[in-house]
Design goal:
CATH topology of the largest domain: paralog of FGE (formylglycine-generating enzyme)
CATH superfamily of the largest domain: paralog of FGE (formylglycine-generating enzyme)
CATH class of the largest domain: Alpha Beta
Structural class: alpha+beta
Number of helices: 25
CATH architecture of the largest domain: Alpha-Beta Complex
Largest sheet: 5 strands, antiparallel
Strand order of the largest sheet: 3-4-5-7-6
Radius of gyration: 37 Å
Length: 913
């Protein structure tokens, strides 16, 4: 939350004639305000007093909010973090404070009517601004101490001033482009407020909050003004030499000394921050304030971002607010080009227009300012910098270099054709002139002129056909661009919404030209034959190679656009329907998995933090996941991956019962240290499992089951498995609950990031597979412990034609000749099924010796580039013996290798708080 001192009201010129009028007991009831007074400019109770009385009368006896801590405090009010006991959620509460020093021990002064009015107006104005970029007000009331308060959503994040400092330092991935995105959202929020007739009057970086998930909020509406409503508050500063000891605290003295501090009137009321204040506000011209005033303040924030310093304040200087105020009135600030010669000219032009001294020269609205910022980010024409067809063309060429090159080549041909047309027409005119000068050659000249005109018309038609052909070839490139861009618009989260919407616009425009392309394909087909007999015989011989090439290109274009318009909604399909589905998910995933599940997340986060298994681990809500609570046996938390299928079902004992439509279930594995690899005493150990060593990992997610054929089919649009429905092998039918196989490492690395998942590292896989054990198998120290607990090579495998030489556990027959449905065998101590046998599972690492260094976060092996030949698989399979099912056993293959015994178990990092 930002500084509550900046949420005050402007000072009133009529302050000097205020009278003190006590409120009656009827107005106050039993409130703690009963022994205090409210100052008013009239002899009767003011409207704010009436509102206060109603709040007191409706106050319940039971306290709803439990104060946790104070977030910030100022002379006008304090912001507290509270717990809403009715709805079990954290909130921010802003309470009005009495006049005087909030930190002193002296009795409080009477409640100031102007301050109370401003406080109530802030609550009412903010409460009516229903926009994602404006923190919603939940309730207005009076607390147990008789203080007026209102509650708001608790915003977790940092203010824009902090973000600017991260940009300047190049930390945490922040740069000017990301910061411009924040200012874009500020423009959109203010456009909404302006549409409601509300101006902010104190926009500055400290009053903009950036949430942990990219949310942007415009804060502190205490100076907001409703246009059309009388506002007599002017800029009446304290005179020099007036004692302020009774009006401010040491904290406020320190704040006033900072260049970005708010300006205080002689009555102790905040009226804005001079460094970001428009000239009309600095002059005290209240009636001149409007949306263009907020445009100026946003321009001043953009100036701060580009110049690395506030307007009118040299870097590192401490200048009084009065000095800055005078500079604002005289204006303008030091030109950006002087402070940063490398600043983009378009952004400099945007700042100059937004911060123009004369209001009429500024952007008319924050939407116009947003349009120019967005145009800069998208490499389009910025109207504040330049306009016109030439500028538009230049920007278009930069955005579409391959297409521009193709069109340029075509235009050269078109220019040549036009020159030919002009030349023919010139010759026709010369022929007519000759006819006039030479009567004897009139007929011959006229005939020659007509011939040249015909040639000119033919040349013109040829030029038009060539132009049309260029446009068709451009659509071929557009189709390729759509296919390429579709692959990069993952995952289906909010940050890719703009890209998906742009993709859909281009795809629909291309689909609209399908009838014209089909018509041209038919025309080319008509030119394929030399005679009607060849057409009847179905010959595909073309008269010319050029026509054959054009026909092939057009046929491919028509097929591609037809494929684009198929009603295929599979996640991986490159169709309009699939991208519409992707857009729908991206715009709703936060609502469905975090906002709608906020109570579940709050409880899960609290229980994880209190759990002994997790050692005080603190996580935040994970986008795309929904808590499923603890597994009743392992005690570890499990989560539903929403994009991959329906919510998992539990039996009466709380155990998950797999079903074909079920989404992926992720288990949160605690962070910690374990011994990786096999000790020298372990039987059947291999050289590449040596030496065993300790590895420390952070907490992570990994799938409770191997990825099923149903889950892969829903996400990829096809089932690549060798053993798949409705095959029956040794009396058992393969179903969509069987694990997917016949997938390569490359297939998995393409699909999983599209749904926000990844392959586990070897270290993550082995820690999860061991489940806290140190024996060769999680079941025990000898191979007989695998009986009935792992799907390995056995009698049923041998009966189906498998290599009986792999069977090394006598009289073992689990009835599954190939892989079994997930969950068919008991879970390990971490609640994971089939980590021994069933199918091998790909890991993220390149194969390499255990002595190679590991990534400190997730344990990925750092293999030198020259040694990167194969990727690692883990866990054994239905066709392998007991030794291959050991927790330390490793298998490697090339990244493109596929087999009917090779599948995947997805994983995911824990998103930071």
């Amino acid at each position: 939350m930002s500084d509550p001192d900046s949420a005050g009201a402007e000072g009133s010129p009529e302050r000097s004639v205020e009278k003190t009028v006590p409120l009656t007991s009827k107005e106050l009831g039993d409130s703690a305000f009963g022994s205090r007074e409210v100052k008013s400019g009239a002899a009767k109770a003011a409207p704010s007093s009436e509102v206060l009385s109603r709040l007191i009368e409706t106050r319940t006896g039971m306290p709803r909010y439990q104060v946790k801590e104070e977030i910030a405090r100022g002379g006008m009010g304090a912001i507290l973090q509270v717990w809403d006991g009715s709805l079990d959620r954290p909130l921010a509460m802003k309470v009005i404070l009495e006049s005087g020093s909030p930190e002193s021990q002296s009795p409080p002064s009477p409640v100031n009517e102007t301050r109370l009015t401003r406080f109530l107006e802030e609550a009412r104005v903010t409460g009516q601004l229903d926009h994602p970029g404006i923190v919603p007000v939940h309730e207005l009331g009076v607390d147990s101490e008789g203080r007026v308060f209102f509650t708001m959503k608790l915003v977790k994040g940092r203010d824009l001033k902090t973000i600017f400092n991260l940009v300047f330092a190049g930390n945490e991935g922040w740069n000017e482009t990301r910061a411009l995105g924040v200012l874009l959202k500020v423009c959109e929020a203010m456009a909404y407020a302006h549409a409601k007739g509300v101006i902010h009057r104190d926009l500055k970086p400290a009053n903009v909050m950036v949430g942990d998930f990219g949310e942007v909020y415009v804060m502190d509406w205490g100076l907001a003004r409703v246009q059309g409503k009388k506002d007599a508050h002017g800029l009446k500063l304290r005179p020099d030499g007036v004692s302020l000891s009774s009006l401010k605290t040491e904290r406020r003295r320190e704040r006033e000394e900072a260049p970005d501090s708010p300006l205080i009137t002689m009555d102790g009321i905040v009226v804005g921050t001079p460094a970001y204040m428009p000239p009309e506000q600095a002059r005290g011209d209240v009636e001149a304030l409007g949306p263009r005033s907020d445009v100026y303040s946003i321009g001043a924030m953009l100036y701060h971002l580009l110049a690395r310093q506030m307007p009118y304040v040299p870097s590192g200087a401490r200048i009084s607010t009065r000095t800055i105020l005078a500079a604002v009135i005289q204006g303008p600030p030091t030109p950006l080009a002087t402070l940063r010669r490398d600043a983009p000219a378009e952004l400099v032009a945007i700042v100059d227009k937004a911060m123009a001294q004369e209001r009429e020269r500024r952007y008319a609205s924050t939407l116009e300012l947003a349009d120019d910022l967005r145009a800069f980010l998208e490499n389009r024409v910025v109207t504040a910098y330049e306009t016109g067809p030439i500028a538009e063309l230049r920007k278009w060429v930069v955005r579409n270099k391959p297409l521009a090159a193709t069109i340029a080549a075509a235009l050269l041909g078109l220019v040549a054709a036009i020159l030919l047309v002009n030349d023919a027409r010139i010759k026709a005119n010369e022929a007519r002139a000759d006819a006039d000068r030479n009567a004897t050659a009139a007929k011959e000249s006229e005939a020659k002129a007509k011939e040249n005109e015909i040639k000119a018309e033919i040349a013109a038609e040829a030029a038009q056909r060539e132009k049309d052909e260029v446009l068709r070839l451009a659509d071929v490139q557009r189709l390729k661009d759509l296919e390429t861009d579709s692959a990069r618009l993952w995952p289906a989260h909010l940050e890719n919404v703009a890209g998906i919407e742009d993709w859909l616009g281009r795809a629909r425009e291309l689909a609209g030209r399908l009838p014209a392309h089909r018509e041209r394909l038919g025309e080319l087909a008509e030119q394929a034959f030399d005679s009607s007999e060849e057409r009847e015989r179905g010959s595909s011989k073309f008269r010319h190679e050029t026509i054959a090439w054009q026909h092939e290109v057009m046929a491919g274009l028509v097929r591609g656009i037809e494929s684009l318009t198929r009603d295929d909604r599979n996640w991986s399909a490159v169709t309009i329907a699939a991208l519409e589905r992707r857009l729908e998910f991206a715009t709703t995933v936060r609502q469905t998995t975090i906002d709608d599940e906020s109570a579940a997340w709050d409880l899960a986060i609290a229980r994880i933090a209190a759990s002994e298994e997790y050692g005080g681990l603190k996580i935040s809500p994970q986008l795309g996941l929904v808590p499923l609570w603890e597994d009743p046996e392992s005690g570890l938390f499990e989560f539903w991956h929403v994009q991959s299928g329906e919510r998992p079902r539990r039996d009466e004992d709380g155990r998950i019962v797999p079903h074909a439509a079920m989404g992926i279930v992720l288990v949160l594995i605690p962070g910690g240290t374990f011994t990786m690899g096999s000790p020298k005493s372990e039987a059947d150990r291999l050289k590449d499992e040596d030496p065993s060593h300790e590895v420390t990992l952070e907490a992570y997610f990994i799938s409770k089951y191997e990825m099923t054929q149903g889950q892969w089919s829903r996400l990829a649009g096809q089932n690549p498995s060798n053993y798949k429905p409705p095959q029956r092998i040794e009396g058992r039918t393969i179903t969509l609950l069987n694990p997917v196989e016949q997938v390569s490492w490359e297939d998995c690395s393409r699909l999983l990031p599209q749904i926000g998942l990844d392959l586990p590292t070897e270290a993550q896989w082995e820690r999860a597979a061991r489940g806290g054990t140190a024996t060769p198998w999680w079941m025990g120290p000898d191979k007989d412990s695998l009986r009935g607990r792992a799907n390995i090579s056995d009698e049923s495998y041998g009966r189906a034609g498998g290599n009986k030489g792999n069977i090394d556990l006598a009289e073992n027959d689990d009835g599954h000749a190939v892989h079994a449905p997930v969950g068919a065998f008991p879970a390990n101590p971490y609640g994971l099924h089939e980590v021994a046998g069933n199918v091998w599972e790909w890991c993220r690492d390149w194969s390499g010796g255990y002595r190679l260094p590991l990534d400190p976060a997730d344990g990925e092996r750092q293999v030198p580039a020259a040694e990167r030949e194969a990727r690692v698989g883990r866990g054994g399979s239905f066709g392998g013996g007991t030794a291959l099912a050991r927790s330390a056993s490793r298998h490697d293959d090339t990244p493109e290798y596929r087999a009917g015994y090779l599948g995947v178990r997805p994983a995911r990092r824990v998103a930071p708080r």
